[in-house]
Amino acid sequence: MLAYESVALYGLVIVARRKVSYGRLDPVRSREVFIEGALVAGELDTRLPFFAHNRALVREVEDLEHRARRQDVLVDDRAIFGFYAARIPEEVRDVRSLEAWHGEAAKAEPKLLFLTKADLMRHGAESVTEELFPKQLRLGDQAFALAYRFEPGHPMDGVTMNVPLALLNQVDEAAIDWLVPGMVREKVAWTMKALPKKVRVLLVPVPEHVTKFLERTKPGERPIGEEVLAYASRLVGERLDSDVWSKDQPPDHLRMNLRVVDDAKRELAMGRDLAALRRQLGEAAQLTLAQSKPGLEREGITGWDFGDLPAEVTFRRSNQAFTGYPALVDEGASVAIRLMDTKEKALDAHRGGVRRLLAFDLKEQVKQLERGPSGFNALALRLQSVMPAEKLREDFAAAVIDRAFVGEDEPPRSPKAFEEQKKRAKARLPAVSEAATRHANAIAEAHQALGAAIAQGASLGKVVHEVKAQRDRLVFPGFLARTPWEKLGELPRYLKGLALRMQKARANPERDVRHGPVIAGLWNQYEARAAADHEAERRDPSGLRSFAGSWRSFASRSSRRS
């Protein structure tokens, strides 16, 4: 170990900062400084095997502290200093003397300077196991690397999951809400304490109820908040709504931190809001996955000439396993094969692609359908306040085609299955068209009657406003194709119910005011669910959002071709 000295004569510096051996000047202090800085602090530059082993072991114990969120696992520097000081002789004061001494000492005792976990840990940290605090989180067929940090206020406080960009849309929001097993008790306890006081008092003592909750609940199927609400509802004896929660957010370490990375592991974005990350990078994620499996996608398809189409494909890229979901995609004048990043997107798109291919092969039947059902002019007149006649004609055709061509069948993925589906579609078309006509006329009649009831009760103000809003969520431009088939027959009953409310409100306004909050509460629940579905990009059950909108352009092209 070196030090610097200055030589002066009568106050005049003759030699400045001359290097000298500090060990000769102060052997005891020199040895202490060497052990503190070189060995304990890890500033030594050496290839001695004990040093690398000890540094790795310190980092491992520090990682245990981050996982367990406690700072009393790793011993302090004085304990590590004592370990070295008890084994290293007094004449060792620098790297040269250490290597010379260790070369001989290791012959007799090779592990003399090797630390163990027992040397570094104040207690056993038995609760910090790989099962409770895993290094990877498995979601389906994918494994995502996890990193832990115990530093409140830091952006990465808690547990961070590395998400390759191509897999961003495949992350299960409900699953990551449960974090890792070692942290779930704390999150469930926090969630229970976020309930209103009248419910909270039934959950005392909280630790016991957390245990009972975890014994009865399967993690990952629904978000923790929904499961806790269901558990509390059983205790209360009535169904609790989601609006009972306090407005406070859980602390950051109880929300999974997502770090989106590219193929080179470079960070693209990070945050605890999965929906926001998908809005930012969702399209890029879909494109990245599609590009990861070159040769699969194809465009300009007008007939099933491509053999079997698997429901999913698994492949590797950059040492990462990927799963993609091939689907036929309706592109209007043709169909394309695309690789989707979620099963839901693939199912939705594939249904539309199959419909379009069947429409190409059954163009004569489609042409007949596009003329509209019998009595169409009268139907269009009744619904003219909802949409123009031409739009209604397209909407009717789209609804019939979806039900007749696919319905509740599994969309085909092979040439043989496609031909069989075509036979079924052709046979079902007349009956489905007749049923759709019956539904449409019943809806139009109930809608017209409701319009008359609204006109008669124009003075009711708020009631009229609410009824109109609810009516317009049921019957709107494109409603025939957008409403699930099994619900079309229910729409007249819903519309008659709104008309009945108008009638009763005119007869007894006070009664409507008294029961209005109940209706408003249910409606708010519906709106919240619809907003949540939109935020999570959950598609409409019929999968016709894009199909119905594009039918007009296809119909005109079909007419020109024929």
In brief, what are we looking at here?
The protein has helices at residues 22-25, 27-40, 49-68, 77-87, 95-108, 117-120, 173-176, 181-193, 197-200, 206-216, 224-236, 274-292, 343-361, 363-369, 376-382, 389-405, 415-456, 462-474, 479-482, 485-488, 491-507, 509-535, 545-561, and strands at residues 2-9, 12-21, 136-139, 142-149, 158-164, 257-261, 267-271, 298-301, 313-317, 320-330, 335-340. With 562 residues, the protein is an alpha+beta fold.
Question: What does this 3D model show about the protein?
Answer:
Helix 8 packs across helix 10 and helix 16 packs across helix 17. The chain contains 23 helices and eleven strands. The strands form three sheets. Strands 3-4-5-6-7 form a five-stranded mixed beta sheet. Strands 8-11-10-9 form a four-stranded antiparallel beta sheet. Strand 10 and strand 11 form a beta hairpin. The protein has 562 residues and is α+β, with helices and mostly antiparallel strands.
